[in-house]
Amino acid sequence: MTDSTATTEATAKNFASAVIEKSRETPVLVDFWADWCAPCRMLMPVLAALATEYSGKIQLVKVNTDKEPQLATEYGVRSLPTVKLFKAGQVVDEFMGVLPERAVREFIERYLDRPADHQIRVAVELSATGQHDEAIKLLAAALAEDPKYDKTRLALAE
């Protein structure tokens, strides 16, 4: 079932490319579901809407556990629906059951890059090459844009 352009159906054959490799570029939400699972059908539209909203920032991959039981076993799925978030080739978080849209949105947003993340990476590179003043200016600008982002504060303190 493909709900949007941000959604892919995974099988044992394409899981490595659709999930593991893709998660090295962008976070991948993997929804383990089944046709008979009523809670799965309740969660699907929420995931599909958020995948469309965050298109380009996150990928939604669906695994039908009735058709792909080996994937469910391999990833320790014990109840449906189970949603696992992959980043850099690894499972970094998960939830089971149906969550309200707000909670799913918060779950996703914890793993999305913020604009300051790019500035932090550049500042770290500048600092590593001895360009400390430029790094501090860049981090100060990032902090001004997103004053509540603790990662910027930590980078500035370092």
TrEMBL record:
The lineage of its organism: unclassified sequences, metagenomes, ecological metagenomes. Keywords: Disulfide bond, Electron transport, Redox-active center, Transport. GO terms for molecular function: protein-disulfide reductase activity. It comes from marine metagenome. GO terms for cellular component: cytoplasm. This is Thioredoxin domain-containing protein. The keyword Electron transport applies. InterPro entries: Thioredoxin, Thioredoxin-like_sf, Thioredoxin_CS, Thioredoxin_domain. The keyword Transport applies. SUPFAM superfamilies: Thioredoxin-like. Residues 1-113 form the Thioredoxin domain. Pfam families: Thioredoxin, TPR_19.
